[in-house]
Design brief:
The chain contains 15 helices and no strands. It is mostly helical. The chain folds into two domains: 1-30 and 218-284, Serine Threonine Protein Phosphatase 5, Tetratricopeptide repeat (Alpha Horseshoe); 48-203, Tetratricopeptide repeat domain (Serine Threonine Protein Phosphatase 5, Tetratricopeptide repeat, Alpha Horseshoe). Helix 11 (203-215) runs antiparallel to helix 12.
Length: 284
């Protein structure tokens, strides 16, 4: 079971990377001026009231397999029949953990939000916000995305009410703002810059600043950001995005080297095949 969950985790990370790159239009990547003007497009989309735990769970069940889906459906049925708040909270925690175990952050997020509403702790709101951000990042559902961002903003704001100096909550809120949770993405960038000013090695803030540099066509800034992350800890994600930056800057050999290092740190067949294709394109 543990091996299977690890495999699912790898798949989710790879899908998130590919989905993010698709949203950035990696072939020509982007026209910087156009991208800067539309960086927060999510905020312009209406938030559907139908996007809830049931909505995102239905989609996620098609991914996780019949047996696991049946287990979760049974827990959902028990939750609907639960008579006391204590029983509901226990089942919500079980459902949140079940979805975490199969790396499906969107449905987990709604259950963590329900838990946070009852317990109202900084960590509970932080966990809910993180799952909503993760759900947005891995989702291609344009109906669900605005709801995931809106809920992320709300969760992190609630966390910051309990701990105004919480850097993790500020980072998460900054990411949600740039994803469309604020009128201007610069509100989110400012929060992320505030975090790295206080904690220069903050992984999540630096990773997202690098990603948003790519999204705005500022590839040299992305290079600097990802190289800084790698100096702290070599990981496949910053190497992969570093390669993307080099590719857009026309530095082919540097891009190939970074892709190779990323591939070595993530021995997954799907990821390897995609990276090999990028390397082949650069060599031709």
């Amino acid at each position: 079971m543990a091996t299977k969950q690890k495999q699912i985790a790898v798949i989710v990370i790879v899908v998130a990377i590919m989905g993010y790159l698709f949203s950035l239009q990696p072939k020509g990547l982007i026209k910087p001026k156009e991208t800067r003007a539309n960086a927060g497009v999510t905020g312009s989309r209406p938030v559907s009231t139908s996007v809830n735990a049931d909505y995102v769970s239905a989609a996620a069940k098609t991914i996780i397999g019949n047996n696991l889906a049946a287990e979760i459906t049974a827990l959902e049925g028990s939750l609907k029949k639960a008579g006391t708040d204590a029983d509901k909270l226990k089942l919500q925690k079980q459902l949140a953990q079940k979805w975490d175990d199969v790396n499906q952050p969107a449905p987990a997020a709604f259950y963590y939000r329900a838990i946070a509403e009852k317990q109202n702790t900084y960590q509970d709101w932080l966990t809910a916000g993180d799952r909503f951000n993760d759900g947005f990042r891995s989702s291609q559902d344009t109906v669900a995305q605005p709801a995931l961002v809106t809920n992320a903003v709300s969760a992190f704001q609630n966390a910051l009410k309990l701990n105004p100096e919480g850097l993790d909550a500020k980072t998460g809120l900054g990411v949600a703002y740039v994803n469309g949770g604020a009128p201007s993405p610069m509100q989110g960038i400012s929060l992320l810059l505030e975090v790295v000013a206080k904690d220069p090695k903050n992984r999540n803030a630096n990773l997202n600043l690098g990603l948003f540099a790519i999204k705005s066509g500022q590839f040299q800034k992305g290079v600097d950001r990802f190289k800084g992350m790698i100096a702290v800890k070599p990981e496949f994600e910053p190497y992969f995005y570093l390669a993307e930056c080099y590719k857009q800057l026309g530095q082919k050999q540097e891009a190939i080297d970074a892709y190779e290092k990323s591939k070595a740190l993530m021995p997954d067949p799907t990821f390897t095949a995609q990276v090999d294709q990028y390397i082949k394109e650069l060599k031709n």
